[in-house]
Amino acid sequence: MLSAPVTAIDQAILYMLVPLGFWILLSGLDDLFLDVVWLAHWVHSRIRTGASPAPPAPAEGAPERRIAVFVPLWREHAVIEGMLEHNLAAIRYRNYAFFVGAYPNDPETMAAVCAASERFPSVHLALCPHDGPTSKADCLNWIYQRMLLHEEETGDRFDIVVLHDAEDLVHPEELRWMNRHCGEYGMVQIPVLPLPTPFRNLTHGVYCDEFAEYQTKDVPVRQVLGGFIPSNGVGTGYARWALEKLASAAENRIFEPGSLTEDYENGYRLHTLGCPQLFIPIRFLSGQPVATREYFPERFGAALRQRTRWVTGLTLQSWERHGWRESWRQIYWFWRDRKGLVGNPVTVIANVVLLYGLATWLSSRWTGRTWGLARFSATSASLLIVYAGLFLQFVRTGVRAACVARIYGGWFAFGVPLRMFWANWVNFLATISAVKHYLAARLKGEPLVWVKTEHMYPTRAALAEHKRPFEEVLVGSGYVSAELLAAAKRTKPAWARLGEHLVALGHLTYDQLYEALSLQQNVPFQKIDPAEVPLRVARALPGAVARTFKLLPVNIAAGRLHVAGPELPSDKTMRALRNYTRLDVRFQFTTPENFDLLVEQLLARRRAAA
Predict the structure, then answer these.
(1) Separation of alpha carbons 300 and 14, rounded Å
(2) Model pTM?
(3) How many CB atoms lie within 10 A of CB 423?
(4) Helices and strands: H and E segment counts in the chain
(5) Phi-psi region at 171: left, alpha or beta (left = phi > 0; alpha = psi -120 to 50)
(6) Picking from 53-57, 218-222, 399-403, 457-461, which range would have the lowest pLDDT averaged per residue?
(7) How many other CB atoms are there within 10 angstroms of residue 411's CB atom?
């Protein structure tokens, strides 16, 4: 009964095999071209200089230009304070300020930014004059206007603007790199790499794979071949003179409000205006890549929304705005950026054909019937096309796995073939969704709006690698000299912590130790008078909980429970505290002596009042 439908399917597949094979071969040769150029450039650089190609590193003690860091927000109240708190502590640069954009109809995000600005004088709220969301570009334009107003009010002038999102871990050296190169280049882009997640997390793993390959090979090759460098949207530095050139060319619109991928658009616009661009290749410091790190969507739905926006902006809007009007070199990069419109659906069809062919071949071997696709082998030229395409796919997989292994390790790279298959389906559905939403918006005459992705800020464990080393804080802030620190490290017992050992030697007081920890972690430090803690606050957590976690409630303000202790609590501890209070819990340091005094007097007051 199934023979007729199966025969019809076999016939349809036989008609499709050659066109599919041609496309896969063409796309594979395109990818192979980039592989060859990248390898040739790497070998040439090794022969000429004895090292991998890389721009000069920032010099120690170089004059610091004034840098403004722009962070556009829409409903990011859950992560923005943590982002600012961490990055302000981690960045190894002094002459900078954050300008954080928010909308009037997003009061929770506004409140979070205002709370951060009260704690950190270098944080400024940039309020858009209208409700949101509009587009990220529109929000960025209003942040720029807020920076101009700040300059008028204070007499400051910012020489560089750097873009980031609410979930970003800014590398401690990033602003030094921007300072080094934004005089010569109009746009400087450092790599952007997802933080590692478990092997089983396929969706986030797709981001790890794609960004590892793109940042390792594709963008450097664009630079070598003279193509425009698309901004990644984060980790991008603009020289002030380049922004002013953009403004004068587009009626003061530095970022194109109608574009869903203003980062890509600006990379192209700067190139056409003759502004030199620089991509800093991936390099490692202390075993970690110098890159902006973040978590990308882990759930399928969130990834689909984000990739729909990317496909819409990078392919459909770009095609609409710029067509194919350019030199042949730039047309090639347009082809590279837009070929997913065809390639994403075709790849999924090829996957389905492959699975169907394998299933029917196994069935034919089991039943003894003739394999319905066996006739295809009779045409040797067509078979050669298919085999060549398959070979190039193996090469493509191997190259990606090598790039992934360099960043995430060999074990994670073993999952590349499986994640490539999963990525094909995600990108296919994103392409269909993008075309659907784009056509609907054009038919209705409606603008395409900023579709935000839900963000998760990294855990303390992930943040630890991006903090300034405690030793650097001690010496840089003048608590101890480098000589005293080196001597203390030589005499420190294996079981002792460095700070406590310095206190024992008399080189630090406990107050100085906790001031330094406060600077490193960007967590408040305060010695608290037990008499100033109201009884209702002292009762905010059960006594057993306070003793178990070595945390005491010391204040309630603005819907937050402030707890104090001598040890930075883990993520597990902070999650456990949420079982005992509905308030948002915030931690601050206090010395062990002050904590013991608080325990003694506050718990005594609680017992007396019971």
Answers:
(1) 33
(2) 0.81
(3) 22
(4) 25, 14
(5) beta
(6) 457-461
(7) 9
